[in-house]
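Contributing new records

If you add data, match the layout below exactly. Sequence lines come first and carry their own label; structure lines follow with theirs. Keep one chain per record. Anything else will be rejected by the validation script.
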Amino acid sequence: MKALISIDYTYDFVAEDGLLTTGELGSAIHDKLLLKTKEFTEAGDFVVYAIDKHEREDDYHPEMALFPPHNISGTKGRELFGELETYYQETKDRTNVYYFDKRHYSAFSGTDLDIRLRERGITELTLVGVCTDICVLHTAVDAYNLGYKISIPEDCVASFDEDAHRWALAHFKNVLGAKIV
């Protein structure tokens, strides 16, 4: 069994005026990411939206010392970017679609993601979203350590740092044994 984990593809991380944007690189993957999401959803595979969430006064969170405030609860910045938001709204009531808030880079850290995947007998994960070298990377490392097979469509991940993006893709393949497609 397989699942798609869509990581942080939100307005703040992708839109030109997002608060921590990947800009053109992030928006360039929109159509492929949307197509991949539709493919998994329509096939009945488990589709997970793992979305970063912070509070306005989140000064104690370690990310706030590293990055400007982003994905603040109740703001447009937390909405899924582009047509992905519309598609999610159309499919959110399906039993194979799961949306949750995350507080750390990894979608596994402090969440019930592993339990939900194992309940469904899922052993293979496809990771999409942003940032390749931050949240996608940390999710992939945790997935690897938990024994999942990992696949990453190269045209469905992006970062604001192109060198770090390329490094992360090599790391997925060479260190985590991920399949880069």
